[in-house]
Write a structure and sequence with these properties.
- The protein is mostly helical.
- It has five helices and three strands, in the order H-H-H-E-E-E-H-H.
- The longest helix has 24 residues.
- It is elongated.
- 16% of the residues are buried.
């Protein structure tokens, strides 16, 4: 059984925009991770992020990982942890200030929402 608690700090350090981009582009390399137990944990996290990203590609029309919009607000939804803002720029600032992943995976979809203007 994988011990995620044991590697909590490493997982937090792993869950970044750069990691998600590497997963998205098929460039993530965990070959440098020498601890076998840590590598297994990071592979599990990688698989979870890859599945979530795949779902975002299919179901998310904003082009931004974990972000959706209603008529009035922008939302960032990380497994039920919701951040709400009145503008996309404000949402980005809030998400990044909490060290959460802000990743644009589809620039064209984002442009359909007016880009990153406040």
């Amino acid at each position: 059984m994988l011990d995620f608690d044991k590697f909590r700090d490493e997982i937090i350090e792993f869950c970044t925009k750069d990691t998600l981009k590497a997963i998205d582009w098929g460039l993530l390399d965990l070959g440098g991770v020498e601890n076998c137990e840590l590598k297994e944990v990071l592979l599990a996290v990688e698989n979870a992020l890859a599945l979530e990203l795949e779902n975002n590609y299919r179901q998310n029309d904003t082009g931004i990982f974990r972000v959706f919009k209603t008529s009035e607000f922008w939302y960032y939804d990380e497994e039920g942890y919701i951040i709400r803002a009145e503008s996309l720029g404000e949402l980005k600032r809030l998400v990044e200030s909490q060290n959460r992943i802000w990743y644009v995976f589809d620039e064209i979809s984002l442009e359909n929402f007016g880009g990153m203007t406040d």
